[in-house]
Amino acid sequence: MHPLAAVLAGLLLGAFSGLVPGIHSNTVASVLATMPIAPDAFAVVVAAVLAAHIVFSFFPAIFLSIPDETVVVSVLPGHRLALEGRGREALAVCASSAMIASGASAVLLPAALAILPAIYPAIEPNMALVLACASLFLLASERQVRKIMLAGFVFALSGALGLASMRAPINDPLFPAFCGLFAASGILLSFASAQPLPSQKSQKTKLDFLPYVAAGVLFGMLSDLLPGIAAPAQIAVFASLLLPTEEPRKFLALVAAIAASHAVFAFGALVSIGKAREGALAIMNEIKPVLAPDLPVLIGAFLLSLGISVFLLMRLAKHANRLQSLDMRVLNFGILSYLTCAVAIVSGAGGLLLFATSTAVGLLPPLLGIRRTHVMGLIIVPAIALSLAG
User: Fold this and answer.
1) Could you tell me the pTM of the whole model?
2) Lower Cβ count inside 10 Å, N or C end of the chain?
3) Domain, as residue range, for 186
4) Number of domains into which the chain is organized
């Protein structure tokens, strides 16, 4: 297969997985691994899938409030902008941030190949302590003793749910968990005051979020030092505390930059410290062991796929006003029904139980008046447990 054809195939598959909730880039890579594809072509396809999936997953996150585990923390601010008629602006911020961050990360990749092996041995033994301290910082951000106690309860409850889901025979447990914590809980709360999606305005995007993109690149590199689950989501939560902002555009830029830079630096982590921080890369490495000389081609395929995906996403965003004609209650009911069916198909009966439980947990933060980010205990607590066990 010609490299350009491999990039195109990966782009189309990544667009499909990004736009359709429940289909992850890891799933696509797993299916492709069963097909008779030449190892070199397989690696290029997976790199292209990874890039396209990141870009296109912002569309359902912003307009439909359906999370993908890589950009899950973008759901609330992104959908809030869509309800203000600024969904296209939110998409433009995410797309441009991902493109700038991936390019900057590619330039910094040679430095990362030298830095990661030097830092990782020092961080790995102390990972549980690092995550625990960061978690305390997350709870303390509520500032009031009462809210800190409530946040601790939600964090611990979410963590217990995460530990239980790790041990349960559930396929892809993060999918039903995140759908419950963020999508289903939000939909249930919105039924009482569902408002139609307004006309999505087209306006020039200011570049005042560039400092957050730069920070996202650095945090993205840091995320590849972490052995936790869904590291970009964890890092985005902690990064938002270190760089607090009430401007959702800047938060979206930070999340998009972390997601894109994490993916680029994941290639470096695979080569330099032998750790696959993306499931798709782990599958790729089994079919085609990745060596340093392979990086220019793979990063090139990633950047090409991401650039084309950004162009296509912004073309798709021009048709977002078609969502305006939909009754939001009917749309929300349809999304909730789809998620239930998708969870049943992907994760089975155990997934449905996890979906229902996580939905109940996801209702707590808005009802208690605390930040919803505390439900990220779902992935932080298991990451601490894994670090202690390892």
Assistant:
1) 0.81
2) C
3) 3-389
4) 1
DSSP string, 237-280: HHHHHHS--S-HHHHHHHHHHHHHHHHHHHHHHHHHT----SHH
DSSP 8-class letter at 235: H
Question: CA–CA separation, 166 vs 168, rounded Å?
Answer: 6
Three-class secondary structure of residue 159 per DSSP: helix
What is d(CA 61, CA 90) in angstroms, rounded to the nearest whole number?
A: 11
Q: What is the pLDDT of residues 115-168, one digit of tens each?
A: 888 888 887 778 788 888 888 888 988 889 999 999 999 999 999 999 999 888
Structure tokens at 237: 């939560």
* 8 A C-beta contact, residue 157 and residue 312: no
Residue 67, helix vs strand vs coil: coil
DSSP 305-336: HHHHHHHHHHHHHTTGGGGGGS-HHHHHHHHH
How many residues are present in the chain? 390
Nearest alpha carbon to residue 67 among 234, 230, 181: 181
Sign of CA dihedral 244, 247, 250, 255: positive
